[in-house]
């Protein structure tokens, strides 16, 4: 069923015969109805579907982080879609059916603030990780920028993150996980978010560490 808009001379949305109408950003578009294919998907098509599926699951679990980290998208684009597209193309290792997340290539934020590129991580016991970095300020970094830390791992049941581990001027911060995470290897990422939440840095991969 098609729905007419703006009178008989306006556009319509929905399906009318072999034509599909849609309204995108205030403009009406017409396109032919896609035909169903009787051909089984090729290995390349299957791999592309699985890469997109894996990327969508990964990004979906981090939606709260992604909505902040990918806020610099074009008008009418969505941060989750942008992040899913990036990870499906750049951050998945292997070939179908053996696909996995390529953790060093994961990007949880894209922005213009100076990133925590000199941040160092150390597992300090009591299921806590310590982060230290030199205190520097310039036009692209303010002392009250907040450090976002994200912890991921194959053996952790869910991702863990905290937006305000410390301020850039602090030079150090700690993140306490759960006692059940002791002995697990985790991937650690950090990024800066401005105090008003409207500016971010690129996320930075800080390596893999074993929780003790």
How would you characterize this protein structure?
The chain has 212 residues and is α+β, with helices and mostly antiparallel strands. The chain has 3 domains: 2-32, no CATH class; 43-105, no CATH class; 120-210, Immunoglobulin-like (Sandwich), CATH 2.60.40. The protein is 17% helix and 33% strand. The protein contains 3 helices and 13 strands; from the N terminus they run ββββαααβββββββββ. It has helices spanning 43-60, 63-69, 79-90; strands at residues 2-4, 12-16, 19-24, 27-32, 92-95, 98-101, 120-125, 128-132, 146-152, 160-162, 172-176, 185-193, 204-210. A 4-stranded antiparallel sheet has the order 1-2-3-4, with no helix packed on it. Strands 10-9-12-13 form a 4-stranded antiparallel sheet, with helices on one face. It has a 3-stranded antiparallel sheet with strand order 7-8-11, with no helix packed on it. A hairpin with a 2-residue loop joins strand 5 (92-95) and strand 6 (98-101). It is globular and about 65 Å long. The N and C termini lie far apart (60 Å). The model has no long low-confidence stretch (mean pLDDT 87).
Which secondary structure elements does this structure contain, and how are they paired or packed?
Elements: E1 2-4, E2 12-16, E3 19-24, E4 27-32, H1 43-60, H2 63-69, H3 79-90, E5 92-95, E6 98-101, E7 120-125, E8 128-132, E9 146-152, E10 160-162, E11 172-176, E12 185-193, E13 204-210
Antiparallel strand pairs: 1-2, 2-3, 3-4, 5-6, 7-8, 8-11, 9-10, 9-12, 12-13
Helix pairs in contact: 1-3
What would the average pLDDT be, to the nearest integer?
87
The secondary-structure class comes to alpha+beta
Low-confidence stretches: none
Beta-strand proportion: 25-35%
Helix content: 10-25%
Overall geometry: globular
| Radius of gyration over C-alpha positions, nearest whole angstrom | 22 Å
Number of strand segments: 13
Task: Tell me the number of structural domains.
Answer: 3
CATH architecture of the largest domain: Sandwich
Order of helices and strands: EEEEHHHEEEEEEEEE
Please tally the helical runs, counting DSSP H or I stretches of 4 or more residues.
3
- Fold-level CATH name of the largest domain: Immunoglobulin-like
Largest sheet: 4 strands, antiparallel
Q: CA-to-CA gap between the ends?
A: 60 Å
């Amino acid at each position: 069923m098609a729905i007419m808009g703006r009178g008989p001379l306006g556009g319509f949305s929905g399906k009318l015969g072999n034509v599909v109408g849609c309204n995108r950003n205030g403009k009406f578009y017409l396109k032919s109805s896609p035909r169903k294919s009787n051909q089984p998907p090729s290995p390349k098509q299957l791999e592309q579907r699985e890469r997109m599926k894996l990327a969508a699951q990964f990004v979906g679990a981090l939606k709260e982080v992604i909505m902040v980290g990918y806020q610099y998208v074009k008008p009418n684009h969505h941060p989750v879609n942008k992040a899913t597209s990036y990870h499906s193309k750049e951050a998945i290792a292997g070939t179908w059916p053996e696909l996995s997340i390529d953790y060093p290539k994961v990007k949880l934020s894209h922005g213009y603030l100076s990133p925590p590129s000199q941040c160092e991580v150390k597992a300090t016991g009591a299921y806590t990780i310590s982060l230290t970095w030199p205190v520097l300020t310039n036009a692209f970094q303010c002392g009250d920028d907040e450090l976002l830390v994200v912890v991921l791992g194959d053996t952790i049941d869910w991702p863990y993150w905290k937006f305000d581990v410390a301020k850039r001027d602090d030079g150090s911060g700690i993140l306490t996980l759960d006692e059940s995470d002791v002995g697990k290897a985790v991937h650690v990422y950090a990024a800066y978010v401005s105090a008003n939440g409207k500016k971010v840095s690129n996320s930075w991969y800080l390596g893999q560490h074993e929780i003790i």
